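Shipment paperwork, digital attachment
Item: protein structure file
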Amino acid sequence: MRSRFIQRALALGVALTLPAAIMSLPSQALAATVGQPAPAFELKDTSGKSVKLADFIGKHVVLEWTNPGCPFVQKHYDSQNMQGLQKEYAAQNVVWLAVSSTGKDSYDYLEPAALGAKYKQWGGSPAALLMDDAGSVGKAYGARTTPHMYVIDPSGTLVYAGGIDDKRSTNPADVKGAKNFVRAALGETLAGKPVTTPTAAPYGCSVKYAS
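Attachment content:
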């Protein structure tokens, strides 16, 4: 009986060998693959304006999954790391989009005006702060943590997905000296080079998707 079960599992794609973390993700999460076209989306920003990823074909785009209630997000804003990256790459014509996929039933949820005010207080300067209350875009990209970062090249291809850096802590002091994967990916793709590290493990608080 056991052997027949294993044979059936193998026939279905060796599902038994998949890591538990991947198995627990929604099926849509597997849609975003580095080297493939980034999933299209349209969301409203905190001012109610509709923003489409397709609006930025021909430009590099960064997607930053965020939640101001998360200590890991606070680390990168309290240290001015995230704002610094946003401003540095905006000057190089990179479009930086911050995305909130926090569900309305989460204690961390902020209405658009309050969310926008928080990032203004922090001095954040993304091109847009997008509301993904339903979580459809976050699930399409497989966003698991805040922050979770993605870099898209001018052709619309996803060239980086993962953590912002290699210091998996909430301590702002750890930003200094960390290997910043987003900076490295942007530096290479802006120079027309392939990204050396196209994926890295994300870290942070889990995305609070709507139940």
